[in-house]
Specification:
Layout (H helix, E strand, L loop, with lengths): L2 E7 L5 H15 L6 E7 L11 H9 L14 H6 L2 E4 L2 H10 L8 E3 L20 H29 L9
Parallel strand pairs: 1-2, 1-3, 3-4
Helix pairs in contact: 1-5, 2-5
């Protein structure tokens, strides 16, 4: 059974769909596409049903990531049960998730940049109100963190023989 990962930002039109698209492509390139399932969602329902921001789609396409088919949705209670990892783009998203998530599933919550070995910041900045350079920065951060996340989680899967990072049931 694939390990299920949900990426979360505010409106699900910039950062989290970028992470979803990058994760899909990198997992495919690494031969791990059967080992993982990816989705993205927002903490708020501002853009439900919308495609990602056109600047997000453009920046991602320049690097070979296809995002235009994605549609924004809001995090649901079922997501905490369905997904093995719920990965927040920023501290405010993580705090929101902690409030919305039953205590039983808090161990599934993390910040994406906790996986990064190259960047010191722990938040992927919101590019929405800036220029294209912000979308490029998001891609830089997300590519490195997602690569490290895939390496770590695929290694844990081999080490434990299960989808549970701790190896316990």
């Amino acid at each position: 059974m694939p390990r299920r990962i949900l990426f979360v930002c505010t409106g699900n039109i910039c950062r989290s769909p970028t992470a979803e698209g990058v994760a899909r492509r990198l997992a495919e390139k690494m031969g791990l596409d059967e080992a993982f399932e990816f989705d993205s969602a927002g903490t708020h329902g501002y853009h439900v049903g919308d495609t990602p921001d056109p600047r997000t789609v453009t920046a991602a396409a320049r690097r070979g990531y296809e995002l235009a088919h994605l549609r924004a949705r809001r995090v649901t209670e079922f997501d905490f049960i369905r997904f093995d990892h719920v990965i927040a783009m920023g501290r405010d998203h993580l705090e929101w998730l902690k409030r919305a998530c039953p205590q039983l599933y808090h161990d599934k919550l993390a910040l994406l940049l906790e996986f990064s070995e190259r960047f010191e910041d722990d938040e992927v900045p919101d590019p929405y109100y800036g220029g294209m350079e912000g979308f490029e920065e998001v891609l830089d951060l997300v590519e490195e963190a997602v690569m490290q996340m895939l390496l770590r989680l695929s290694s844990q899967r081999r080490d434990t023989g299960s989808g549970n990072p701790s190896g316990t049931q």
